[in-house]
Automatic annotation (TrEMBL):
<dbReference type="Pfam" id="PF15609">
    <property type="entry name" value="PRTase_2"/>
</dbReference>
<dbReference type="InterPro" id="IPR029057">
    <property type="entry name" value="PRTase-like"/>
</dbReference>
<dbReference type="InterPro" id="IPR000836">
    <property type="entry name" value="PRTase_dom"/>
</dbReference>
<protein>
    <recommendedName>
        <fullName>Phosphoribosyl transferase domain protein</fullName>
    </recommendedName>
</protein>
<dbReference type="InterPro" id="IPR041688">
    <property type="entry name" value="PRTase_2"/>
</dbReference>
<dbReference type="Pfam" id="PF12500">
    <property type="entry name" value="TRSP"/>
</dbReference>
<feature type="domain" description="TRSP">
    <location>
        <begin position="331"/>
        <end position="452"/>
    </location>
</feature>
<dbReference type="InterPro" id="IPR011214">
    <property type="entry name" value="UCP020967"/>
</dbReference>
<dbReference type="InterPro" id="IPR022537">
    <property type="entry name" value="TRSP_dom"/>
</dbReference>
<feature type="domain" description="Orotate phosphoribosyltransferase-like">
    <location>
        <begin position="39"/>
        <end position="259"/>
    </location>
</feature>
Amino acid sequence: MNNRILSAYLPKTYQYKAEELSLEICLQSNPFDLNPDALFALALRKNRRRRFLFVSKVLGKHIPVNPLLPLLTGAALAVQYAKVLLSIEHPCYAGIIQALKTKQQMFEVFELLIQKPLMASPEKTLFIGFAETATALGQSVFSLFDNACYLHTTREEIPCLKSELDFREEHSHAVNHRCYFMNSTDLKTASRIVFIDDELTTGNTVLNIIRAIHRQYPKKNYVILSLLDWRSAEHRARFKQVELELGTKIQALSLMGGEFKYSDSTKGQSANVNPSWEPRIFGQLSQEEGKPLLERHFISQYYPFAESELAAVYSQDSSGWLNKTPYLRLTGRFGLSWSNHLKCISLARKIGGKLKLMRQGTKTLCLGTGEFMYFPMLISTYMGEGVSFHSTTRSPIYSQAGTDYAIQNGCSFPCPEDPGIINYIYNLPENYYDEVYFFMEREVRPERLYPLQQIAQAKGIFRAVFVIGISSPERRFLSDHKNPPAANP
């Protein structure tokens, strides 16, 4: 990807190019004077609805980052929202922005955020983060407020629960979103709903969920917080129309905003994609199913949780197989109160301290899995220096090495929770990390972990640790030569 600045003052114009795709961005809003190249890069994705993708450099999803960076990015959105719409300035406001710009003293600022008094929202607020990319971003925004609760949407199917809201993200690789509330009064009684996403392009997704909510539980105020807001004048006018139609107020804030136009020379024909851009495939050969993990490379660390921290519901994969091991309630998938969030911080500090003592290398990668991002990210901040964090994803993106293109390489593999769904890991350099910690919310069948270990070995990582939350207290630790037990059918 190549980019260059065409003007010096706002509005600024930037040009980006990735093979047949060209983008021109007119930057109109940049309240913290952040460098666009520090926030995002461009990539091509396998999606006919929208071929381009703004890949965030601060989310910890596709690109490895210091785990404190996405947490402070969410905090920046939170303090901007508080200052602009609530007239509350957090005492760490300037420190957060400075830490984001310089990448200095991030841990000190983060610890201050935990210790400082919360920003009291004048009305009960429900924060909703969008799966799968913004689950952690949403929770990091919510973490600065009291009189609030948090939920993230999910693409998982949970047969024993009724989804309170169902809506679609038309341009996505996985269009269906569900909202499961263990306590549906949070949705009913909230006076204001704040949506958090990494990017607004047309705004159709958030309008879809606003309509879904408004049909059942109409609100007077909706707010959208995003890292990037690329809505055109036409799209912004549509928001005004929906405001009038529903008789409500919809406000949007972002760290950076403007408009873009793009040209695609392959429009109407097949894209000319180099085969080397395809992610390397792992774990899809039938003869490898059930193949035992190599003892030398495998450690499994289990952490039992108190029953109050587990949601005793089961999931169903695309083959119909039921996994009855509990979900972790602290993720926000079923709604999260402030007291639950405090438990999340305390538990993450405890687990992170234990994993820090287990480390055997100076360069450690921590990988979240799918929607399970915030809790692993939080744990990673307490594992010491030299830790990078990012996550697996469902998003199919082309990779290209050797340029400033956002996705340098990629690996695809069957999702451990549902082998019928293909997952990806991007930007995993060869012979760089000493060890990798895979964080999984629940137990799965042991053979489903094999592709992840294959990937680690192929990248020259000779120590793989699986950190998995379970409910059975007797399964605290399995030594290097043991494989994890199968999940209960």
